[in-house]
Design brief:
rSAM_horseshoe; alpha/beta; 6-stranded mixed beta sheet; aspartic acid methylthiotransferase activity; metal ion binding; OB fold (Dihydrolipoamide Acetyltransferase, E2P); 19 strands; 5-stranded mixed beta barrel; Rossmann fold; transferase; pyruvate-formate lyase- activating enzyme
């Protein structure tokens, strides 16, 4: 969970004959939300608004997260804090889309609660807010019903989907100067996992066209990006709505890696059951593509996975990790798991432990199950009490900590290519097996003279938890 205040003026700003309105933005949640915020910033600056600090803004836009209870609480707290500045407050994002009028009624501090369909007209809505006009709150619908059932018919619809359908100009403003930039390749999800509400407010799966993605990638490279972090709700489904072939993601990755100025492409949100051998080979062996596998395993027990309405089991998942390491022994693999799911037995937990020990992953997020409103699992029997879930989270977390530390120690003596992301008191970056914010980092010793955005061949000297201490050998040109 991240919260990012955005400030300053940017090259995309369009001059106006009158004084510009000032808007501040806060983003909560995942990298997909960060992309959406940059779209909103681009639309606003393109309509004459100026991005500013919160204490100097007329309006604060809060891009909320609505995934789990803690994320909702963080979003509400941020909305309240924004209102304390005296500025008008507008809620957008997943929580606003999911709850709409209900959120507006419970939070009079917000001047407007807007859904995704209002993103193209956000500047006009903010003008109305500033002038004291009543802006109608979003009325939620199940967004899965707004696109055709058949995936191949979805490319012809004109539904507003954040980050899709831009014209010749990239409708985006970079909100930081990081050398890594998230790039959305698709939105929505057609899966029906029993614990997840995301498809109901993010909608059915729809891919962006390769031309649109490549155009944005080139723009990001021109604006300082050196690594592209590909995001979606389910990247392995990319291109299924194009109606031809099954290797669209493989082809896209190769083309993105060839974009001038881009040194590394990283793909995230892979579904294990949809991860094809050809995709594994492309990610593991294509120059310029990080040999990094962000696989959503969720558990290791086939019985629990079936109750989650997912596919696979311990042995099939271990087979996938073995396939990856046969092609790239040092590939990075990360996942998230849910423990304490309704009906989970001690045998199921041991099966999860067997999987974690055998898979030797670099990073594992451990989450305790809790009911999520509107999901099928919320109505399941055989739920565990809070103490049991907490104990199981602690048990699996302790195992994960040990395993990931051992995995990091296995890399001592190896050479890694590190992208420098910080070069001040400490020089810090990430290797191919480390995604932004979640997978640890590399601390570069004797890194004087290195600059942010440099790619450096380093030798791993030691490990501290999942972080690596590395020594530079040469800058890779």
């Amino acid at each position: 969970m991240s919260e990012t205040p955005f400030a300053g003026s940017y090259p995309d700003s369009v001059s106006s004959p009158t004084a510009k309105r000032r808007v501040a933005m806060f983003t909560l949640g995942c990298a997909r939300n960060e992309v959406d915020s940059e779209e909103l910033a681009g639309r606003l600056t393109g309509s004459g608004w100026e991005l500013s600090e919160a204490d100097n803004a007329e309006v604060i836009v809060v891009n909320t997260c609505g995934f789990v209870e803690q994320a909702k609480k963080d979003s509400v707290d941020t909305l309240l804090a924004a209102a304390d500045t005296g500025a008008k407050v507008v809620a957008v994002g997943c929580m606003a889309e999911r709850y709409g009028k209900e959120l507006a009624e419970s939070m009079p501090e917000a001047s407007a609660v807007l859904g995704f369909d209002e993103y193209p007209e956000l500047a006009a809505r903010l003008d109305e807010v500033v002038h004291g006009k009543q802006v109608e709150s979003h009325v939620p619908v199940d967004r899965r019903t707004l696109l055709p059932i058949s995936p191949v018919q979805r490319q012809d619809t004109d539904l507003a989907v954040p980050g899709h359908g831009w014209g010749p100009r990239v409708m985006r403003t970079r909100l930081d100067d990081s050398p890594v930039a998230a790039l959305k390749i698709a939105s929505g999800c057609d899966r029906r996992c029993t614990f997840c509400a995301i498809p109901s407010f993010r909608g059915a799966f729809v891919s962006r066209t390769p031309e649109e993605i490549l155009g944005e990638a080139a723009w990001l490279a021109e604006n300082g990006a050196r690594e592209l972090f590909l995001v979606s709700e389910n990247s392995t489904s990319y291109g299924k709505d194009f109606g031809r072939g099954m290797d669209h993601l493989e082809k896209l990755l190769a083309r993105l890696a060839a974009v001038d100025g881009i040194k590394r492409v990283r793909v995230s949100y892979l579904q294990p059951a949809e991860t094809r051998p050809g995709l594994v080979k492309t990610i593991a062996t294509t120059p310029g593509v990080a040999d990094y596998f962000d696989l959503s395993f969720q558990h290791g027990s086939g019985q629990v996975l079936r109750r989650m309405r997912r596919f696979g089991d311990c042995d099939s998942f271990l087979g996938l990790t073995e396939q990856i390491r046969a092609l790239s022994p040092n590939a990075g693999i990360r996942t998230n798991v849910i423990v304490g799911f309704p009906g989970e037995t001690e045998e199921d937990l041991r099966e999860l432990e067997r999987f974690l020990v055998g898979a030797r992953m670099d990073a594992v997020g451990v989450f305790g199950y809790s009911d999520e409103e509107g999901t099928e699992a919320a109505g399941f029997d055989d739920k565990h009490d809070e103490d049991t879930v907490t104990e199981r989270v602690a048990r699996i977390s302790a195992l994960v900590e040990q395993l990931t530390m051992e995995r990091a120690e296995d890399r001592v003596g190896d050479e890694v290519i590190v992208m420098v992301e910080q070069a001040d008191d400490e020089v810090i970056g990430r290797a191919a097996h480390q995604a932004p914010e979640v997978d640890g980092e590399c601390v570069i010793e004797d890194g004087d003279g290195l600059a942010v955005g440099d790619f450096v061949r380093c030798r791993v000297e030691s490990a501290e938890g999942v972080d690596l201490i590395v020594r530079p050998l040469e800058v890779v040109t």
